[in-house]
Amino acid sequence: MEKKGVLYRTCQEWTLFQ
């Protein structure tokens, strides 16, 4: 669960970064 949350946040941050 924690890993999925981190991945989800990373994906959102990546989208903002890109």
Descriptive report:
- With 18 residues, this protein is mostly helical.
- The protein is rod-shaped, with a radius of gyration of 8 Å.
- The mean pLDDT is 77.
Helix and strand composition category: mainly alpha
Low-confidence stretches: none
Strand content: under 5%
Mean pLDDT: 77
The tally of strands reads 0
Shape: rod-shaped
- The share of residues in helices is over 70%
Counted by DSSP, the helix tally is: 1
Radius of gyration: 8 Å
Please outline the major beta sheet: none
Termini distance? 26 Å
Secondary-structure element series: H
At a glance:
It is built from one helix and no strands. With 18 residues, the chain is mainly alpha-helical.
Entry keywords:
single chain, about 20 residues, mainly alpha, 1 helix
